Here is the input.
Amino acid sequence: MKVKFGIYFCTDEGERFFGEGPYQLLLGIQRHGSLRAAAQQMGMAYTKAFAMIKRAEQEFGFALTQRRIGGRGGGGSVLTEPARELLMRYEAYRAACTQMAENLYNTHFSTFRQAPPCSGGSQS
Here is the structure.
């Protein structure tokens, strides 16, 4: 038995705007230099990826990407410095939460095991 949980940030109204999906999208932009390529790698429509980034930018209050205009080498996107800082902080926060969750799980459930169910027919 293992514990599994998700980390996501919400608005004051409780609406999710950042979590593992947008995080992976930003990593993809960093890796590929393109929002379109990152979305494609994740099997996501470009319009959905664009909306996710714009929503997170709105809530965080800063740009996550900077567009490069196309031309001979083509256009693309790069992460802004605040976006790179966000990735580092999110990774550290996620690692700390994972460690804490494992510690709490071990404290409360490591010795909690139910007896396996009896197999076979009913007893008289």
User: Anything to note?
Assistant: Residues 10-104 form a domain with the Arc Repressor Mutant, subunit A fold (CATH 1.10.10.10). Helices lie at 20-32, 35-41, 46-60, 81-109.
